[in-house]
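Entry for the shared binder. Reason: the reviewer on the internal report wants the predicted structure included alongside the sequence.
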Amino acid sequence: MKKIITLFVASLLLLSPLAYAENIFNTNKFSFLDGEPELMPVDQAFVFDFKQEGDKVKISWVIADGYYMYRDKLKFEADGAVLGEIALPKGKSHNDEYFGEQEVYYSYVEMPVAIKEAAAGDTLNVTFMGCAEGKLCFPPTKRTAVLTDVSANDGILDLPGSQATAASDTDAAPITQQDSLSQMLAGDSLIWTLVIFFGLGIGLALTPCVFPMYPILSGIIVGQGEKLSTAKAFGLSMVYVQGMAITYSLVGLVVASAGMKYQAALQHPAVLIVLAILFFVLSLSMFGLYDLKLPSKWQEKMNSISNSQKGGNVIGVFLMGVISGLVASPCTTAPLSGALIYVAQTGDLLQGFLALYVLSMGMGIPLLIIGTSGGKILPRAGRWMDIIKTIFGFLLIAVSIVMLGRIWPDFISDVLWSLWGVVFVGYLMHQNKLTEFSWKQTTRAVLLLLIFLGSFSYGMQAVMNHFGFTSHANANLTSAQQSHTFKRIKSLEDLDSEIAAASAQGKTVMLDLYADWCVACKEFEAITFKDTAVMARMDKMVLLQADVTKSDDIDVALLEYYDVLGLPTLLMFDESGAIRDDLRVTGFMRPKAFAEHLDHLVK
């Protein structure tokens, strides 16, 4: 008997590993007999169903074990019907190897969809995307629910605790920054919203949009002479910032109310050339070539007004602020776009003006600090005063180059910047030689020499590139980037044709709305579009570009058709050719953020 029991136990011990191994070999996860994992068809892995109850449709999926479905890849579209709110249940956090941290659904998910209006036979199309755990992801899959007749209603879901959203918001992408700021303006807490816009304005003060204002204001402060108190410096700075803020806000309201063509008109070559000449002429006064004075009769009147104001030539400073507001107006950012979108959609000019005004005042805070401190820390007598005035003269010339850089080719701008740098640094080197010999003078001389050589090299490189004398490495880089060249289009008809061709190939489309005067457009080309991660995503897209620099009737028609309020603007179109307004980009985006943004369009 003991022998029998011993043999039985020994058999179990021997057979258990074999049974375990057989179980492993026969599982879907490790099917070595077939040579590769066994996968269910998408219809079996994600069993779709729907049920209409009056003006609501319940969409559901039964999800097989080992599979999951992305929450933010769901897309709802109606053919004939009008969709209302959609309640997407909260998913579970999942660190996905393809898309990073995602919310996903397991096992079973159900979501109600409100139907505002529908006729019998209209359809609700649902696109979803799912994956097999650790194996692969299925391409976006579309399923259709056929609807019955639904009378017109408000399309609101009355579900306690649900996360109901408008149908247009259920697409894959999150709300863009400019849209979220627009919605913030429409909220209840106006004071808190304005505080946020003020803070955003302070952040914008560090961008190239505000750069031309620093030498302008500093030149005004320096030009006041030796007897400038801190109080007077603050007063003049505040007047200047008010002129800039009011103009910037009014221009924004005009653009939001009347269209992009008015902003483009401010960037007409004639306007920019006049501004460039104005700043160049002002710079000459800093070099001591002339004293900018009004006729004697006018000057007496202005002096009397100035004395009564106890703050200098307020009118002139305010007008310079107005000009600076025009200089900054083409710089489109997410906060500016958010305010413009709000005004364009609601027509609430007052609230839009307040948002733009506090944004501008935030931009003006560093200007106030610089202007006010300038009256205290800048030397007021001796040769140093002349040197500082000359330096600000060079900075005013830099503003002129910024203006002309919006209409002239990059090659000319690069050469001008190189010449500016060589002359400016040459002047500083000359002044440094006149100082007392010491280790400080030697250190300054070395640093200035390096900057001088860098400025000269920058211009030489621009000339060599322009005439085709590029190195082998640069040639390879240019060749690598040729695959990411944007195809130029002009009209709406051109765009429709290209989108149709892309849809036939199942490709998405990105349209870059560009203008020579748009600084951030050039930042996109120089920084974001050259990023490796961004290029990898653009490889899968059709890239189009519309140059609207001239702002002719065809350009205006294209901009107004898509409600473009500022540049740069990037429009996205999915594989079916439908525009993805939720993925629209207005204002500059850094490479990492832009690459993640494209992930919502490129599969």
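Summary line for the report: Residues 1-38 form one domain.
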